[in-house]
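call fold(seq) -> tokens
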Amino acid sequence: MSMKGIDPAHGRAARRGPRKLPVRAGWFIAFALSILLTVWGAEPTPATLPQSQPESPRESTGRVIQVAAGEDLQAALDMATPGDVIELEAGAVYTGNFILPRQPESSEWVHIRVASSDSALPPPGTRVSPADSAAMAVLTASSGTILSTAAGAQRYRLTGIEFRPVPGQSAPLNTLVWIGAQGRALVEQPSQILIERCYLHGDPVVGTRRGIVLNGAATTIRDSYFADFMTLNTDSQAIIGWAGPGPYSILNNYLEASGENLMFGGADPAERSVVPSDITIRGNYFSKPLRWKEGTPEYAGTRWQVKNLLELKNARRVLISGNVFEHNWIQSQNGFAILFTVRNQENTAPWSVVEDITFSDNLVRRVGSGINILGYDDINQSQQTKRIHIHNNLFTEVGGEWGNGTLLQLLNGTAFVSFQNNTALQSGRILNTEGPMQTGFVFRNNILPHNQQGMIGTGTSSGNHTLTTYFANPEVRGNILVGAAPNLYPAGNETPRNFNGVGFVDFDGGNLRLSPDSRYAGRAGTDPGADLDRLCAALSPTDRPAFCAAPETR
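ret:
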């Protein structure tokens, strides 16, 4: 099988053919240890969850500084002290390149809010939309960055603000908000920043590259709406971070960008050994609008640089749960929606790693392919990708008009990837692999179609031949591989001829819960496939699809 056109790493056009993968001493050590663990019968180490979170702000109790339309917002920022509230006028436009200054050390926060935030905006915990913009104050700029942070800035809370470029610009603005201090040591980086119920968007005609650069520490972005981050010849992101240590919480936002809706990595941190860590990504809606997709009735005529929905190139201890990922297709990349692809981007950060990633209770739909995982950077030196736990997700409409429909791709020596209790409807392969041996792989209790090739690697046939060639003693059991030949995979898997034999509540209607009278219900103490009641409970209420309202089956 040819790997032509597969681009396992982000940020480059698909290669003309397979690349020879470099051999490193570190890989031999990791491989030997993994073999010993396998021989001794050890279970793969579970992914470690985030160990810390940004702190919650105290309500401000100091003076209220009111800034009316036309008044000097930067002067108010410079005047404020911990505990103060800066109130902006709803509908007023404040133009400039504003800086959040360093405050005296304090446990109090400075709260920058629109004056109507307590009454006209949706309540905390509710995601805003463009329809709420009339109740917001507007911060804008024609060049540079609208809002940035001084070294050591801390404990700022921003509520009810629309960030946008000055309309009618001939060139796109690069970044709306930049959290981070260039060239500063970690102790000098801004921290404890909260952006909530804000509307950040690019120019709808010429685009804008980035919404927020997240290079400080301890930052929360929640209940906000990001749109129109799109570029022609470079990558764009709603949110990107590469130089800060974390922790980060990205909660209940709508995230839209043509390149990567959200990415960690993509540039090398200046501070040695920095890995963005302790990241919680929960309850968000990731999407690319169909006006960017050629061939759709909605297409607006500009071929923006479309790549993927979420990418981790340098990240540790990440929880990705309760999100919707939709609309990703082959355009400037190969159509994978989710990438865990380690990258020492500029060859100055050999410590780059993707490890301890939990991807659970998510809905992934209408995408070209599913999840792409790269064990080692195949261009520059990196650490090994390991402990990736993919559990209780639903993948639907993977492939078809969106792409080739590969569900999972493992390349270049991953370690301890587990794919368990997922339900998938993909049009292509279950698994695609090549390169050095994958170790500690677990594929258990999933429901999905086998299709023509199932699990396959470069130069191998489907099933056991691929598993014995590319995997060190993998655990593949308890799965329902619809349409597979019975002897193609290890014992302990089921191979019904078609989905009628699975026993879903309503396959044609999209309710992919197992019926209580399914022959597979309760196997090994639990149902195979995704627990859709648990998944629905994890999604934001506004994002739950129709099957979440289906009648209880138990």
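The CA atoms of residues 143 and 173 lie 6 Å apart.
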